[in-house]
Specification:
With about 250 residues, the chain is of the alpha+beta class. It has 2 domains: about 50 residues; about 200 residues, no CATH class. Helices cover about 20% and strands about 45% of the residues. The strands form 2 sheets. It has a 6-stranded antiparallel beta sheet with strand order 1-4-5-12-7-10. It has a 6-stranded antiparallel beta sheet with strand order 2-3-6-11-8-9, with no helix packed on it. Strand 2 and strand 3 form a beta hairpin. The longest helix has 25 residues. The protein is globular.
């Protein structure tokens, strides 16, 4: 009876370690994050949960499967993604894409304090050409009609390269009036070719946090290496326990 009870502890511990290992945000293509438009994928990064990704493009380009998503975080508590793809429009043409997702603190001590967007690779050449990202941020749940209520919880950021209005403004940031545990970001990525062309091929979107219990940029969510170490330790302990139980019952 004692042998059976002791050996039952191992599967329970291993199951607990598996549950603890929440999916981590990884470097992959956008269609994985949108779950091929099922919009039900979620992942964690440095104490934040990113979910409900959706993406549409007016002309279908660039396709989700060609957009690379790279998670980023730093010691200052900035967490988010770099998006890389071919958002472009030639002479006399325009393109428009919309990217939406939710961000929620998965660490009770961590709060979201701000948001930023930065163009990393872009260009607008020729009269009337422009490359622009307008980002709407809502620090509460949006209404069914898409509005952010109250209006004081809505923020807007704009970055652009406009050939008719130099110089470019490649970065914009906002500090929330009140720190929050949830945010929805809505990016409108627009290119107008004018008489030449406009392109955005890489941009970065980050949220700022207060760092939570893990310190600046820290997290209560374990990293993969830590999970591997814990799992290996549990497995080793179970093997040792099994040997000792065998000796006791001989």
């Amino acid at each position: 009876m004692i042998k059976r009870q002791l050996l039952l502890v191992c599967p329970v511990l291993l199951l607990a370690s598996a549950v603890w290992a929440a999916p981590m945000c990884t470097s992959t293509t956008l269609n994985v994050y949108t779950n091929n438009d099922a919009n039900n994928y979620s992942c964690t990064l440095d104490g934040l949960t990113f979910s409900n990704f959706s993406y549409t493009a007016s002309n279908g380009l660039p396709a989700e499967s060609t957009v690379q998503v790279t998670p980023v975080s730093d010691s200052s508590g900035d967490v988010g993604f770099i998006f890389q793809g071919a958002w472009t429009a030639g002479a006399g043409l325009s393109s428009d894409a919309v990217l939406v997702y939710n961000i929620m603190s998965s660490n009770g001590a961590m709060a979201l304090t701000g948001d930023s967007v930065t163009l990393l690779s872009y260009g607008a050449r020729g009269s009337g050409a422009s490359a622009t990202i307008v980002e709407g941020v809502c620090t509460t749940a949006r209404q069914s009609n898409g509005s952010c209520v109250p209006a004081s919880d809505a923020y807007s950021l704009t970055v652009y390269d406009n050939a008719n209005n130099p110089p470019p403004v490649p970065s914009d940031a906002v500090v929330f009036t009140t720190a929050t545990n949830t945010v929805q970001v809505n990016k409108n990525i627009v290119e107008v070719g004018g008489s030449g062309s406009a392109t955005i091929s890489q941009f970065e979107n980050l949220v700022q946090t207060n760092g939570g219990q893990g310190g600046p940029g820290g997290s209560g969510v374990p990293e993969p290496a830590s999970l591997f170490t814990v799992g290996s330790g549990i497995l080793g302990a179970c093997m040792l326990l099994r040997k000792k139980v065998r000796k006791l019952t001989r």
